Amino acid sequence: MKYNAYVLLTVFSVFFSTSVFSAAKDSGQPLVISMSDDSYPFQYVDENGVADGLLVDFWRQWARLNQQDVVFRPVNWQQSLDNVEQSLADIHIGMAKTPARLKLFDFAEPISKVNGYLYINKALTSINTLEKLIPYKIGVVKGAAHIDALLEKQPKLTFAYYANRQQLLDAVINNDVFVFAGLEGYLRESNISQKVIMSFPVNRRIAISEFAFYPAVKKGKASLLRTVMQGFSLVTPVERNNIERDWLGIQRSQNEVVVAMQTGVEPYADIGPNGLPHGLLVDIWKLWSDKTGLPIRFIAGDMQQGIVNVQRGIADVQLGYPESESMKSGLNRAHLIYQVSSRLFSYKTSFKTVEELKGKVFAVAPTSPYLTELIEALPDSDFYYVANVQQMIEAAESGRVDGFIAAAAWTQHYLLLKDRWEDFYQFKPIHFKTDLYVLNRNNDLDFSDRISKGFTAINSSELAAIERKWILNPADRIYSSTKKLVQLNSKQRAMIKSMGEIKVGFVNNWAPMEYKSDNGDYAGINSEVFKIISQELGLKLNYVEFSNWQTLLDALLRGDIDMSGSIVPTAQRQEKLVFSNSYWPAPWGLVSSLDSVSIFSLTELKGLRLAVVEGYHIVTDLMQEYPTLELVLVPNSHAGLNAVDEGLADVFIDKVMNLSAGLKEGQFSELKMSMLVDFSEQRSHIGINKRQQLLLPFINTVIDNIDRAQQQKIHQKWVSQTIEFGREDFENRLRLSIIVFSALAVLVIVALLANRRLRREVALRIAAENKMALFAKHDSLTKLPNRSMIEERLEQAILTHSREMSQFAVIFVDLDGFKAINDEYGHHVGDDYLIAISQALNNAVRRADTVGRLGGDEFIVILHKVDSISAANDVAELLLQRLSSPFVIDQLSLSVSASMGIALYPADGDSVDTLLKTADRHMYRAKNAGGKSSRNSQQQ
Question: What are phi and psi of 374, to 5 degrees?
Fold first, then answer.
């Protein structure tokens, strides 16, 4: 009887609670859900004050499926528990079970599970067990489930309690705690996370346990839980997986990227003798990790398994897959990572011509991306389809086939391992390239962009070094053998080919930048740059000659030509043109008569007649900024020099290299040149008519990969002397004058006076040349060494320290927040501030060291003969202290911080480029960690 009454009571209570719930739904009463406002990524409030997180998305899906309104009540963690206990909310969004909570709440089934970890500061190198953590206080959020779980494992542990996650992370950053507890995903999607992850590497964390999130109600309201769980049963596994992947998969600041890799395809990818992944593609991914700062983890398997792992969300990306029209994975092509060469191999018989291949049988894999091309190339041959290279080799050795087509590097590696290399020959005319793509899920397109940007940061020399390590045959190397700066996939090559002939305009009398040679060819610096672009992209260029600059510019704006070099971006031109990245320095100079006062700035030209080439962008600027100038427009550089020489203009301005070339001809011995400081840091760009703007990213990639050696080669070919005054010609004339005057005894006194005057003029010219040399090698604002001199000093330091077998350090300094000073107070205050910064840096180092300015707010410090990286760190700390002090500029107290990267010779590189790039990379690590710090290769 009691049993029957109990059953009846239970049925009645379920019916009643369901009825109440239904009534609430029908009456429009929302379900009030208590949650934490700061437990990212599970339950928190975003920057707009809206509830968000994994559990919030679960409940929103629940609400949609059950047609029930819900209201989220976010508060701090402890208050979220109290609100349910005090009936201020109907249910808690999700919490872990603890003995204390079991006394207060009834729990539903878990709706999600996640791992909890202890994050340990990298300074605690020997800590790898809970017992070793006993002396340290563990940072936790008050009321967190980690506390009971940890005390159960090690009762002697002690804790530092914080009200919420933000306070805990602030304590971590301030080094108040060296160990803290957090759930998986705890550091994602936060500006602070980058600061924390640098000091708390993911590979140092200790697992606590798996935690489940249970919806919970106050004791005595279990009937509501049953109804809630009935609603959650409507959420499908696919919907659950999508929500969890969105929050625990790839995020902008995620801690780890999981890479699915295929094995057994060495030298591209395999598991090495030490049990770790290795190979060319693995090394490229490791370099990607260095560039992006994101740790990576490899999951090994076969190629098809790797695709499935990405599709299911087990892995984030596929290492490198031969995606093509015949091999479609259904995934997104994030980046072209490599191109594999496939060739024809024959056994003990060397084919000499394609004719010999007629009637022969060749083995090939039926899934080969190049199968259609192969059949078209060998229409009179037969094909035998096999699964892999091993079967191909066996078929060739047994005589079943006359040869086979396979990936060359893979085949060579296999033959070498089997000691059968000498029995096989390659037929070079049969050669196919297969594109390997990094693949990711189609709904992760933002992550796809981040993947591609990481690979773009890798330069060709770095890739060539990896390639030399793994690819035996130089003919199979796409970087070292062809020295390609740009790798294009098949679609990109087809797109560029479809554009047809591209018209490039040039001025025929603008040496050394561009001109028409005696042979009638396009010549000069710009011609070399366009030649590289043409070779790299396979562009067919048609060079169109113009006699003056204005005519060329008009043609470019109209679209009569497609592009031209040395075009300066202006707002007016950007309506019709797009502009490449800069590719060549283009400082401006000023020519005046020999007996005039030297001029270095436009402000000194007031009231003078100024000659300038018609069409130059500077014409508009001069008319607006200096209305008192009388402009004399000339068609070209030679006409401008003539105008000054004949007295038609007082001064003529043009690019320094063009002026130097004109003065060297000897025709203008009464003219002199000085640097125009106002435009000393201008650089050349390629202007492209918007009809052809699809070419812009490819041209930029080529320009960005033209290395210093190529630039130096172009410079030596076309600019034998950048700053030249014709001193030798002038001194020859002087000697001749002295001889003539000496022969005329009657005019001895006159000759002596003339000789003294001429010598004084020579001295003036030499002084002017020295002044020009100073401008060429020093920053015009701070007077520090500029990029050119910095590179010279680095080259000298490498030579000196290599002979002495000693070390030196390079510190890359980038100011944090300098733009705000310029924006708020103006560029004049910003300039004065940069001068003060340069003086502070100079005063902080030894006289033998070098402080230089790269440009903008970037500086380089070269420290000679340092004992260790710690010594360089000490100097960096001193520099940070000096720069953090306020500087008084125009009665304003200004201060910014700095981010610094340190490279040590020879440990971090033995060339100028490598040292600068390494220091630059570490500087960005410091900046991404929040600035006000330095980083080096020994810091994780």
Answer: -65, -45
Handedness of CA 253, 261, 244, 168 (dihedral sign): negative
In three-state secondary structure terms, 890 is coil
Q: What is the dihedral of CA 505, 511, 512, 513, to 10 degrees?
A: -30
Look at residue 356 and give its three-state secondary structure. helix
* Span 149-156, average pLDDT: 91
Alpha helices by DSSP H, 233-331: 237-248, 280-292, 303-311
Cα-based angle 137, 139, 141 (whole degrees, multiple of 5):
140
Give the DSSP letter of residue 567: P
What 3-state class would DSSP assign to 616?
A: coil
What is the amino acid identity at position 724?
E
Pairing outcome for strands 687-689 and 563-564: antiparallel
Structure-model confidence comparison of residues 665 and 371, the more confident one: 371
Alpha-carbon span 259 to 300, nearest angstrom: 9
* Number of other residues whose CB lies within 10 A of the CB of residue 121: 19
Give the C-alpha separation, 351 to 361, whole Å: 13
Q: Are strands 808-816 and 897-905 parallel, antiparallel or unpaired?
A: antiparallel
C-alpha span between 875 and 810 (Å, rounded)? 11
Alpha-carbon span 90 to 97, nearest angstrom: 18
Q: Taking CA 62 as the corner, what is the angle to CA 61 and CA 64, rounded to the nearest 5 degrees?
A: 65
Answer whether 690's CB lies under 8 Å from 576's CB. yes
Q: What is the pLDDT of residue 719?
A: 65
Reduced to 3 states (helix: H, G, I; strand: E, B; else coil), residue 144 is: coil
Burial (Cβ within 10 Å: 0-12, 13-18, ≥19) of residue 269: buried
**487: phi then psi, degrees, rounded to nearest 5:** -105, 120
Rounded to the nearest integer, the mean pLDDT of the chain is 81
Alpha-carbon distance 374 to 385, whole Å?
13
Question: Sorting pLDDT into bands at 50, 70 and 90, what band is 3?
Answer: very low
What are residue 362's DSSP bridge partners? Answer: 383, 403
The token duo for 333 is 């092509």
Mean pLDDT along residues 624-628: 71
Identify the pLDDT of residue 404: 95
pLDDT tens sequence across 246-302 = 676 543 334 578 899 988 888 899 887 777 888 999 999 998 888 776 788 888 888
Cα 175 to chain centroid, rounded: 30
Backbone angles phi, psi at 49, to 5 degrees: 80, 20
pTM over 0.70: no
What are residue 345's DSSP bridge partners?
404, 426
Q: What is the pLDDT of residues 499-514, one digit of tens each?
A: 899 999 999 988 888 8
Under a CB-based contact definition with an 8 Å cutoff, are residues 250 and 222 in contact?
A: no
Question: Comparing C-alpha atoms, which of 496, 486, 479, 440 is closest to residue 341?
Answer: 479
User: Which residue is listed with tokens 């370099």?
Assistant: 287
Phi and psi at residue 293, to the nearest 5°: 80, 5
> What interhelical angle do 637-645 and 656-664 show, nearest 10?
60
Give the Cα separation of 575 and 820 in Å (integer): 29
Taking the alpha carbons at both ends of the chain, their separation in whole angstroms is 71
Give CA–CA dist 93/71, Å, rounded.
Answer: 11
pLDDT of residue 722: 38
The average pLDDT across 691-699 equals 91
Which residues 6+ apart lie within 8 Å of 417 measured at CB? none
Mean per-residue pLDDT, 337-366: 91
What residues pair up with 654 in beta bridges, in sequence order? 589
607: alpha, beta or left, given left = phi > 0 and alpha = psi -120 to 50? left
Between the CA atoms of 184, 185, 191 and 195, what dihedral angle is there, to the nearest 10 degrees? 30
As a whole number of angstroms, the longest Cα–Cα distance in the chain is 151
Q: Over the stretch 414-472, which tens digit does the pLDDT of each residue have?
A: 888 777 888 899 998 898 888 899 998 887 676 787 788 788 778 777 888 888 888 87
Residue 538 sits at the vertex; the CA angle it makes with 533 and 539, to the nearest 5 degrees, is: 70
